[in-house]
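B., you asked whether I could sanity-check this one before it goes into the benchmark set. Here's the sequence:
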Amino acid sequence: MNRPILSVVVVNWNTRALLKACLESIQEQTLTPTEVWVVDNGSADHSPEMVATDFPDVRLIANDHNLGFAAANNQAIAQARGRYVLLLNSDTVVLDHALDRMVAFLENHQGAGAVGCKLLNGDRTLQPSAHNFYSTMGSLIENKLVALFWKRRSARTRFLSYWDHASTRQVDWVTGACLMVRRDVVETVGLLDERFFMYGEEIDWQMRMAKVGHRVYFLSEAEIIHLGGASSARIPARMRRQEYHSRALLIDKHYGRAARLTFHAKTAVSIGFWRALNALRGRKVSWG
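And here's what the prediction gave me:
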């Protein structure tokens, strides 16, 4: 096989059926010369056996335990040969040559270091996937507690979470469920930070890209179904804790003490509010 243009990296943990559908969609919807890597993080559902049997051309790395999302991706990225590297969740389905469209975008826009696509829920409704980098004011306005009292219409022009995702544009960061990066950008900024076991690693990566001048884009013409949370739903309390710790790590790494204290205070107030609200409703809410 000649050197591929695209290397797709799919990290899997106990999502065998979804992984199979994902790999089938890549095969059916991608014309670009592509190598596909599956890194299995110690699944107990025979995912590696399925990949080896049903997809013999896929490059399989089978770990005996869960290394986390960043470390597992890094295993494949370090060996990938493509001009572009794509992080793709196992609970996705590629639609209408989405990966080809993303490759074409990077080929035609040399100033773009990375690109994401439009993510759709299972019912084909929009799943916001382009976001602003963290700011204290932004995190307050986008927080669910404040959103109860905030006029979203006035926020749409400032905050990408409220944006309709109807056009292609430069953004701060895109969701790591589908993130395509130039190989030379990876070589410049390095691999994913493995201190992020899960959540936050793609934000940190794109922040590091931005700091050295690489631009990230959202491509509205490329669409992928992302079911979301297929692995984390198995252990929701643990994943909530992990998400919190990853956000704290990200803020510690890039923003400093004042932002960290604000983040912890805002989180404590928000958790307290929702616990109180659900207690009034007769529901028990667990934070791990």
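One thing to flag: Residues 153-157 have pLDDT under 50 and may be disordered. Otherwise nothing jumped out at me.
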